[in-house]
Write a structure and sequence with these properties.
This protein has 1 helix and 9 strands; from the N terminus they run βαββββββββ. A hairpin with a 2-residue loop joins strand 6 and strand 7. It has one helix at residues 43-50, and strands at residues 17-18, 82-87, 96-103, 106-110, 116-117, 121-126, 129-136, 148-157, 162-167. A 5-stranded antiparallel sheet has the order 1-9-8-7-6, with no helix packed on it. The chain has 174 residues and is mainly beta. It has one domain (43-167). It is globular and about 50 Å long. Residues 9-25 have a biased composition (Low complexity).
C-alpha cells in the first residue's frame, strides 16, 4: 500500500472533521454550488473525464486504475454525493481500491489519499451521505479470510462546500 496519509483521519466516535484536499487527488469545484444543478454526464463520462486525476497506486501498468471497468451505476449526476469505486487492472480481492466522490455529478475528490486494499462495501444513507465498510486482515489472518472491518461515513456539507469524514479507517491507513 502507498505510504501517504489519508485525506482525513479521525478516531472512532471522534468529532466530524472536514476532508483536507490533497493536490494530487482532489479536484476543485469549477462552479458555485446549486441545489438544482446536475452535471449532465453519465457515470462513464465522469470517470473518463476525471479518472486520470486519481493518484495511481504504482507507476507500472499493472497498478493503473481500471477506468473502463469501473461500476458507474452508483454515480448520480444530480445527487448531493455519489461515488464510483476504482480497482486496478487485473486486481484481486485484496488489491488496492479507491473511491471517487461526486457532488451534483462533479468530481470533488477521493475518500482517502491512500489506496485501500480489499473491495469496499459502499451504501447510500441519504442523498448527501454514504457509508463505506472497509475490510482488512487482523493479525495472523491471511487475505482470503480477512475479518477486520472499519466503517466510515462521508457526507457532503453545503455550508463548507466539501465532503466531511467521520468514523474509522483500517489500521494500516492511520
Amino acid at each position: 500500500m502507498s505510504a501517504e496519509a489519508p485525506a482525513v483521519t479521525s478516531a472512532p466516535d471522534a468529532p466530524t472533521q472536514a476532508a483536507t484536499p490533497a493536490p494530487a487527488t482532489l479536484g476543485e469545484a469549477t462552479r458555485p454550488p446549486s441545489d438544482d444543478d446536475c452535471s449532465g454526464m453519465t457515470g462513464a463520462e465522469a470517470v473518463a473525464r476525471w479518472g486520470g486525476e486519481v493518484a495511481t497506486f504504482g507507476e507500472d501498468e499493472g497498478w493503473q486504475w481500471n477506468l473502463e471497468g469501473a461500476d458507474t451505476s452508483t454515480y448520480d449526476q444530480c445527487a448531493e454525493l455519489s461515488w464510483v469505486v476504482l480497482g486496478i487492472k487485473g486486481g484481486t480481492a485484496s488489491s488496492p481500491y479507491q473511491i471517487m466522490l461526486f457532488h451534483d455529478g462533479q468530481y470533488v475528490g477521493v475518500t482517502s489519499e491512500k489506496s485501500i486494499g480489499f473491495l469496499p462495501q459502499v451504501s447510500r444513507i441519504d442523498d448527501d451521505e454514504i457509508q463505506v465498510t472497509y475490510t482488512w486482515p487482523k493479525d495472523g489472518e491471511s487475505n482470503d479470510v480477512a475479518s477486520g472491518r472499519s466503517v466510515s461515513v462521508f457526507e457532503w456539507e453545503d455550508d463548507s462546500n466539501q465532503v466531511v469524514h467521520k468514523g474509522e479507517w483500517p489500521p494500516y491507513v492511520q
